[in-house]
Amino acid sequence: MTYDVLGAGALDYMPCRYGQSKLLFRGPERRLDAPYVAFLGGTATYGKFIKTPFPALGESGLGVNCVNFGIANAGVDVLLHDGFLSEACKGAQTTVVQIIGAQNLSNRFYTVHPRRNDRFVTASALLKSIYPEVDFAEFHFNKHMLSCLYNVSKERFAAVRNEVQTAWLARMKLLLKKASGKVVLVWFADHAPLLQEPAGLDPAKSRSPLFVTREMLDELAPHASAYVEVIATPEAMASGTDGMVFSQLEAMAAAEMLGPKAHGELAQQLGPVLQSFV
Questions:
Q1: Rg for the chain (alpha carbons), in Å?
Q2: Which candidate, 152, 132, 135, 259, places its Cα nearest to that of 203?
Q3: For every one of its 278 residues, what pLDDT tens digit does the chain have, with 9 covering 90 and above?
Q4: Nearest-CA neighbor of 92 among 262, 274, 260?
């Protein structure tokens, strides 16, 4: 394990901006006027606490720029609605899309922050009518809010879960459609997709990507050029936070993420697929 005892900022992510986007991406900045592969996704794609995340690992073997457009705690909304990202994917030879959880998107029941998709903004009148006893002013993050709704009423929560799953699937299809080139869909987790989301599982105790099932992926996969499923090996899981860079305050967050060994396993499996497309 590597950490900075002085506090946050142990790893320099070399943040950069592209075009007119308001989003900060992980650097170093890559050229977009030469052939490139675009990587869209959340915290794993961004490579939080990882010196060399899987997009960077794949670059040397491909011989083309691999541009990391991962965003920590991203939901589908920020990937779909940022104008620059849409154009960047159209210009890429191939776009790699990491499967991310369904909880961080606006839907009929609640609205999330347009850029920080993990942040809860407001509940709709419909959700308030379903949960009249809940004070939604207490919530700042979607997962906390969803966990509370689950614990208030598991029966009523089923409608919320179904809504976010439906919205996620529709928006993921649109995201894949917007990329004009080849698109590789990637499952990267410590477990295989479940056939169905267990009805009796508290969102706070569920594993990422939250609410995404095998059934949903089976419906989504035909909209991509390829689907790559990478489940971290026992060896990768046993390595824990070895090789990760984080401060003492970030230790708990780092322990919940897949480490450098798992990123290496993903890059190894993804490499041949990308080679066939570029």
A1: 19
A2: 152
A3: 443 333 445 799 999 999 989 999 999 999 999 999 999 999 999 999 999 999 999 998 898 999 999 999 999 999 999 999 999 999 999 999 999 999 999 999 999 999 999 999 999 999 999 999 999 999 999 999 999 999 999 999 999 999 999 999 999 999 999 988 899 999 999 999 988 766 667 888 888 899 999 999 999 999 999 999 999 999 999 999 999 999 999 999 999 999 999 999 999 999 999 999 98
A4: 274
List the structure tokens of 139: 């919530």
Cα 127 to Cα 20, 118, 159, 197, 202: the distances in Å are: 35, 18, 10, 21, 18
| Alpha-carbon span 155 to 100, nearest angstrom | 25
pTM for this predicted structure:
0.93
Q: State the Cα torsion 236-117-247-189 to the nearest 10°.
A: 0
Both tokens assigned to 112: 């999330």
Cβ(201)–Cβ(139) below 8 Å: no
Cα distance between residue 278 and residue 276, in whole Å: 6
Query: CA-to-CA distance for 139 and 165, rounded, in angstroms?
Result: 21
For 166-184, b/e burial (b = at least 16 CB within 10 A) is ebbbebbeebbebbebbbb
**Residue whose tokens read 């009148």:** 125
Looking at domain 2-106+168-275, its CATH architecture is: 3-Layer(aba) Sandwich (3.40)
Angle between helices 260-275 and 54-62 (to 10 degrees): 40
Per the listing, tokens 């991203």 go with 74
240 token code pair = 């824990």
